Amino acid sequence: MLRFISAGESHGESMVGILEGLPAGLTIDVGFINKELARRQLGYGRGGRMKIEKDAIHILSGIKGKKTIGSPVSFSIKNKDFKINVLPSVSEPRPGHADLSGALKYGFTDIRCVLERASARETVVRVAAGSICKILLREFGISIKSTRISVGGQTSFKKIKEIIDIAKNKGDSLGGVFQVQAANVPVGLGSYVHYDRRLDARLASGLMSIPAIKAVEFGAGFESASKLGSEIHDVIKHSKSKGFYRMTNNAGGLEGGMSNGEIIVARCAMKPIATLGSPLPSVHIKTKKQVKASVQRSDISAVEAAGVIGESMMAIVIADAFLEKFGSDNLKQIKKHYKSQ
Ligand code: EPS
Q1: Tens digit of each residue's pLDDT (9 = 90 or more) over 287-300
Q2: Which spans in 139-198 are helix H?
Q3: Which residue from 19, 170, 197, 301 lies 20 to 30 Å from 331 (Cα-Cα)?
Q4: Distance from residue 245's CA to the centre of ligand 1 (Å)
C-alpha cells in the first residue's frame, strides 16, 4: 500500500511530505520533480505568490545515491514567503473558503490559523509526491497528462485571457474545467468486489480532494445519464495486435470499478477562487457585525495548475492500485510480475 501525508502552512517554514510504500530500486530524477513543481506554478491568472516562490524539492530520506531503498521517502519544499508569525490575524471569513467552518470547528477567533493550512499552497506537496509516482508509472509505459478545457465557460485562450483580465480589474475570480487522462494503464487495476477498492471511487476521492473542486466525472459522465444504453456502452472488439479493446471510450477507461485498458479520462469542475479583490458581504467572527470578507493575496484563476495537481492525484491513486496488483518490494520483481500478466 502506498501512503502519502503532507504537512506545512502556506507561510510556514516549509511544506513537507512523506511517501511510503515505494518499491526499492526506483531511480528518482530530481530534475523531473522540479519541472513538475514549476508546471504547478504556471497559468494565466496566477497571483503574486508565484513570483516569490521557485519551488524545489529537498529529499530528506528513503533514497541512497539516486535509488529508493524501500523506506519512506520524505522531502521538504521551502516557503520563501516564510512569515507566519508576523502576519496579522484575520476576522472576516471569506464565503466559499474554509475560513468560517474551520474557525468554528477548531474554536479559533483568528481565521489565519485556518487559512494557513487550508491554502492551496499544500498542493505543492501533492505534486512532488505525484511526480515520484509518475516516475514509477513511466517504468511501465503509463503516462498522465492534463488539459484545460475551459475557464469561466470560455474555451479559447484569447477569450480566457480577456475574461481573466476583466475579473482581475473588477476584483473577481473565475473557475473552470480541466481534464486528466492516464494512458497505457493495464486492465484490472482496482476491483469490483468492495466499494473502497473501486478504482473510480479512489480516483474520484483523490480528484475531489483538490481544493475548489466541486464535481468529477469519468468518460461521458453526466452526459451518459440522458443516453440509451445502446448509445453509450463501449462495444468490445478483439484483434491479434491489440487484444481486447473498445470501439469508443464513453466509460472513460473504467468499468465495474476497474481499469479496462482504455485511456482513463476524468474531468473536474473547479469553482472560482474564494478570495475576491472586491469582497462579498460577511460577518465578523467576534462582533457578529456585517463586514466585507477579508482580502488575501490570491490567484484570479488557477485551472491549469489544478490540472497539474489532478495529474498528481491520478498518479498517486494509480500507482497505489498498480502496486496492489503487481506489487512487491523491489522494482525488478514488479517488472517480472507485470510481464507475466
Ligand atoms: C498558492 C499559494 C497561496 C495563494 C494560492 C495558491 O499563497 P498566498 O496566500 O501567499 O498568496 O497564492 O492559494 C489560494 C488560492 C488559497 O485559497 O489559499 C500556491 O502555492 O499555489
Answers
A1: 999 999 999 999 99
A2: 157-170
A3: 197
A4: 43
Give all domains of the chain, ordered by start, each with its CATH number: 3-339 (3.60.150.10)
| Cβ 260 under 6 angstroms from ligand 1 | no
pLDDT tens digits for range 6-28 = 999 999 999 999 999 999 999 99
Find out whether the beta carbon of 299 lies less than 6 Å from any atom of ligand 1: yes
Q: How far is the CA of 49 from the centre of ligand 1 (A)?
A: 7
CA of residue 119 to ligand 1 center, whole Å: 6
H-helix or E-strand spanning residue 132? helix 123-138
Cβ neighbors of 312 (< 8 A, separation 6 or more) are: 36, 123, 126, 127, 129, 130, 131, 133, 134
**Nearest 5°: phi and psi at 307?**
-60, -40
Tallying the residues shown for the chain, one arrives at 341
- Return the DSSP state at 98: S
Ligand 1 atom at shortest distance from the alpha carbon of 49: 11
3-state helix, strand, coil in the chain (%, to 5): 35, 25, 40
Q: Whose CA is nearest to atom 7 of ligand 1?
A: 49
Strands 3-7 and 176-183: unpaired
CA 294-120-173 angle, 5° bins: 55
Per the CB < 8 A criterion, the answer to whether 118 and 126 are in contact is no
Q: How far is the CA of 50 from the centre of ligand 1 (A)?
A: 8
